Amino acid sequence: MRLYFYRFGCLLALACFVSVAWIRSTPSDGESPAVADMQSLYARLLVAEDLGGQISRDLGNILEHLKNMSRASTITQPATTVKETIRQRMGDSGRQTLHQLSIDLYMPHLRQHPDSLVPNVVLGQGRHGVSMVLGIPTVKREKQSYLINTLNSLLYSLTPSQQQDLLIIVFVAEVDSDYVSSVAETIRKNFPTESQSGLLEVVSPSQYYYPDFSSLKETFGDSKDRVKWRTKQNLDFSFLMLYAHNKGTFYVQLEDDVVAKEDYYNAMKTFATREVSNHWLFLEFSQLGFIGKMFRTRDLPMIAEFFLMFHRDKPIDWLLDHILWVKVCNPEKEAKDCEAQKALLKQRYKPSLFQHVGLHSSLPGKLQHLKDKDFGKQTLYRPHSNPAAELNSSLKHYQQHSLTRAYKGEDFFWALTPVKGDFILFKFLQPLNVSNYMFRSGNIETSGDKFYNTTVEVLPSNALTQGREPDKHFIVIGEFKDGVAAGEIGEALQPISALRLVVHCDSDVWALLSEV
């Protein structure tokens, strides 16, 4: 390009010079019309000469500019975002600018696929701006899956306002699209309301996200399978953290085989709010591994990058401790000083809010008997003061968990698998004005044992005074939804002689009443 401009300028200048020289050499003997025309042409060529000089100078400037750009391009390094690692360019001031490092510096295989870091959102409504985000990585297990029980435990006692201020992300750390879809469908089926509202999200990584694990070195006496397992766990946690970092204020790392205390949400939010002005890296709501660690979402990119930097080298809970060491430990001082400084960056909440319940680890062949001793006992039922009544049921209770003890507030009612036509009857000793009712099925430990397709029915006292057959004149006033039946009883139905629960189809699970 620059040679083209150079040659064009030279030719134009030469043409102007030759033309002027030829005109000046023409004889002028006479004022003939031809001479007058030649003089007019000569004047015009003088103007053209001036213009040619100006064009020549402009072309020279352009050529010099192109030379400068060529020199700058030899200094500038290749740019990088997802495909490239680092970019250097010359700014207007002539100073060199370094651009942000990318993940592919630690995972070079990602450069081959530009979309390898794009999450596959299988289920979700794009919720963001919440106070708290819970991250749950899950994988395909050979023995038993605990995921649904874990979600049941987390959702069990949430109030409507808490549900709106929370996001639970299930990260299916698999590249088998059929399996990922089956997990999402199972969650959608078990939690339709929470899925539709955006409270629950299901995401998975690209099929190109994971590297080739065959070249990993065996370290710390771990087998090849265990090294692969812990390396993949580092990558899973990092992906989930990066996905969640702009969706809320706090992020809590969980696992797919835990149960939560009933009031975990309020306890965590209150503690985090109290400590928000202090300098900490994470808050601990369980003493086991990485369970129940809360971070500020603004710190997640830094933490994830550290994990990715050393994802091949050590387990993730060791790496988290190393971040603390790097931040506050002085290698010239004693170890106890380091521990004291690290303790300032992690605040422990007691009692623990999460308990590990999975027996079979996600590492094939490994059994885990980990229990958090600070977790304490769960509240398995809520007692209430109920009016005197005769109780009757077609359901057979399990061990000591009888309907009578549940009605008195001494225990929960736990029955074997209900079938169509089963009932629970509360017949009051005398007609009563009952303003409202509440039945909660399942509890924090057996959250899946709920009543399904079950109605709540009342028998007005006037049905008995009019000589009607009582069994045929119960009026349906409610039903179980997501394991709970609650509502008010209208004035027109008062007073009430009896109340009953009726099962309308066979169930696949046992049934438990934790609140009557």
Provide an overview of this structure.
With 516 residues, the protein is an alpha+beta fold. The chain contains 13 helices and 21 strands. The strands form 5 sheets. Strands 3-6-5-4-7-10-9-11 form an 8-stranded mixed beta sheet, sandwiched between helices. Helix 1 runs antiparallel to helix 2 (33-75) and helix 7 runs antiparallel to helix 9 (300-309). The protein is elongated and about 125 Å long. The N and C termini lie far apart (87 Å).
Question: What key phrases describe this protein's structure?
Answer:
single chain, 516 residues, alpha+beta, five-stranded antiparallel sheet, 34% helix
Shape: elongated
Which percent bin holds the helix content?
25-40%
Number of strands: 21
Read across the widest sheet, the strand sequence of neighbours is 3-6-5-4-7-10-9-11
Strand content: 15-25%
How large, in whole angstroms, is the Cα Rg?
A: 38 Å
Mean pLDDT across the residues is 81
How many helix segments? Answer: 13
**Oligomer type:** single chain
Q: Give a short account of the largest sheet.
A: 8 strands, mixed
Distance between the termini: 87 Å
Task: Flag low-confidence runs.
Answer: 1-6, 22-28, 67-92
| SS-based class | alpha+beta
Give a summary of the structure in a few sentences.
This protein has 516 residues and is α+β, with helices and mostly antiparallel strands.
Layout: helices, strands, pairs:
Blueprint: H1 2-24, H2 33-75, E1 88-90, E2 96-98, E3 120-123, E4 130-138, H3 147-155, H4 160-164, E5 166-172, H5 177-190, H6 192-197, E6 200-204, H7 224-244, E7 248-253, E8 258-260, H8 264-275, E9 282-284, E10 293-296, H9 300-309, H10 316-328, H11 335-343, E11 346-348, E12 354-356, E13 389-393, H12 403-407, E14 413-415, E15 423-432, E16 436-441, E17 454-460, H13 462-465, E18 475-479, E19 484-488, E20 496-503, E21 511-515
Parallel strand pairs: 4-5, 4-7, 5-6, 9-11
Antiparallel strand pairs: 1-2, 3-6, 7-10, 8-12, 9-10, 13-15, 14-21, 15-20, 16-19, 16-21, 17-18, 17-20
Helix pairs in contact: 1-2, 7-9
